[in-house]
Specification:
- It is a single chain.
- A hairpin with a 2-residue loop joins strand 16 and strand 17.
- With 424 residues, the chain is α/β, with parallel strands linked by helices.
- The protein is globular.
- Helices cover 32% and strands 21% of the residues.
- A ten-stranded mixed β-sheet has the order 9-7-5-2-10-1-11-15-19-20, with helices on both faces. Strands 14, 16, 17 and 18 form a four-stranded mixed β-sheet that branches.
- The chain binds guanosine-5'-diphosphate, 6-O-phosphoryl inosine monophosphate and magnesium ion (MG).
- The site of 6-O-phosphoryl inosine monophosphate (IMO) has 24 residues, from helix 5.
Length: 424
């Protein structure tokens, strides 16, 4: 059976966690394929909010298997905290959580290196979540990394020590005045490693292959968003993994011809956290309203998210590189009350009108060209059926579907699991 993918199409935080949770009832296996604890996926049900960082968003469903794939990077310390929270809620994760032996481990010194690298960049900093993501993927591609499967080998501690001492010299080299107590960090790390070792490690590509043969349904859950992809995002202001559809092939071992539906998630407007270009960013009252009504604060770092109008040029690009087959529009409820809405439908690029995402989208090269729409005033948050949606919202949706040539099959009208409208 083909593997379906669910991916963020913007700069992350589109609402992936919520929709994975909603869709889990249709799947046997939910699998993360890239990223790590830089992700913060929020789920809301029964009046309670849950934030997951590394653990797939199907974990609250009894009968789903949740797999952390080879493409993910795991910080045992953060992972342990996530497990502790699940245990408090009587979630029997030992039964349903599987970890790929090929997933790489974030060491305490990876986090320190992230901080040192950012400090050394000054104003040019990426705005990293400082979870050690970049340095860990650098060690992976540099062929120095430590993987989950190494924890089963007799010499893993020696390898840990060798890599850590190399990192310490690198931190010194940055001369970024990072203060740390390695011994304290290592005590916490070693405790967390023991907890990680109590979970089930598997050869995940074989597991995924057999599951497909047995007609098990699999949903691959993306982290971050397409515009943060290491190749296709707004480099260098990106994360260090392939967040796009191809990342699911390398991050799980799924063959390209085994990909089924590609669910693309986007907000009805745009947000970004961290540095980097953002053509439709708003610095006015409208942006402040989006931030306030949408509670736009990072689920991992608590940083305020930058807000702006929907950028259809960027969205179309994301649909293209991912081969999106169905769209899901989130947070339409946040736009209730705007008299006029704007959608960026083209860019003015060095004096020319273009409709594709160019190499440079910095402010000095690109300015957005907007199409305006009537807003709606109705509160969407209590609506549960597509027939209730206001006419102006339907027009907004129809326009996007026509421009993107992909149907919008879910309209989300609030953070709760129940606030989800299925269209068509
Ligand atoms: P993810 O990283 O893609 O899983 O998204 P985050 O959890 O980081 O950010 C999405 C935020 O929006 C969370 O606080 C969600 O609870 C919230 N959210 C999701 N869908 C909706 C929606 O349709 N309306 C509103 N108002 N909030 C939503
Ligand atoms: P989810 O899965 C939003 C951003 C950071 C920074 C850049 C690089 O919740 O959508 P990194 O820590 O990866 O080195 O940071 O990427 N970033 C995210 N922004 N949502 C995320 O994940 C993000 N993960 C990383 O803010 O700009
Ligand atoms: Mg998030």
């Amino acid at each position: 059976m083909a593997v379906d993918l669910l991916l963020g199409l913007q700069w992350g935080d589109e609402g992936k966690g919520k929709i994975v949770d909603v869709l889990t009832k249709n799947y046997n296996i939910i699998a993360r394929f890239q990223g790590g604890p830089n992700a913060g996926h929020t789920l809301v049900f029964n009046g309670k909010k849950h934030v997951l960082h590394t653990i797939p968003s199907g974990i609250f469903h009894d009968d789903a298997i949740n797999l952390v794939g080879n493409g993910v990077v795991i910080d045992p310390v953060i992972f342990k905290k996530e497990l502790d929270k699940l245990a408090e809620q009587d979630i029997d994760y030992k039964k349903s959580l599987l970890i790929s032996r090929k997933a790489h481990i974030i060491l305490p010194t990876h986090r320190l290196l992230d901080a040192a690298s950012e400090a050394s960049k000054g104003k040019a900093k990426i705005g990293s979540t400082l979870k050690g993501i970049g340095p860990t993927y650098m060690d992976k591609t540099g062929r120095n990394g430590i993987r989950v499967g190494d924890l089963e080998l007799a010499d893993w501690k020696e390898r840990y020590e060798a890599l850590t001492s190399k990192h310490v010299s690198m931190i010194d080299y940055y001369d970024a005045k990072i203060e740390y107590d390695l011994e304290e960090l290592e005590t916490e790390f070693c405790e967390a490693i023991e907890v990680l070792k109590s979970l089930t490690f598997i050869d995940s590509e074989e597991y995924v292959y057999q599951a497909q043969k047995e007609s098990k349904s699999i949903l691959a859950e993306g982290a971050q968003g397409s515009l943060l992809d290491i190749d296709f995002g707004t480099y260098p202001f990106v994360t260090s993994s392939n967040t796009t559809a191809a990342g699911a092939c390398t991050g799980l071992g799924v063959a390209p011809n085994q990909i089924g539906d590609v669910f693309g998630i986007f907000k009805a407007y745009t947000t970004r956290v961290g540095s980097g270009p953002f053509p439709t960013e708003l610095f006015d009252e409208d942006g402040a309203t989006m931030a306030k009504v949408g509670h736009e604060f990072g689920a991992t770092t608590g940083r305020p998210r930058r807000c702006g109008w929907l950028d259809l040029v960027a969205l179309k690009y994301a649909c293209q590189v991912n081969g999106v087959t169905q769209l899901m529009m989130m947070k339409g409820d946040v736009l209730s009350g705007f008299k006029t809405l704007k959608v960026c439908t083209a860019y003015n690029y060095k004096g020319e009108t273009i409709k594709h995402l160019p190499y440079n989208i910095e402010e000095e090269n690109v300015s957005p060209i907007y199409t305006e729409f009537n807003g709606w005033s109705e509160d969407l948050t209590k609506m549960s059926d597509a027939s209730e949606l206001p006419a102006a919202l339907n027009e907004y949706i129809s326009f996007l579907e026509k421009e993107l040539e992909i149907p919008i099959t879910i309209v989300s009208v609030g953070p709760d699991r129940e606030q989800t409208i299925f269209k068509n």
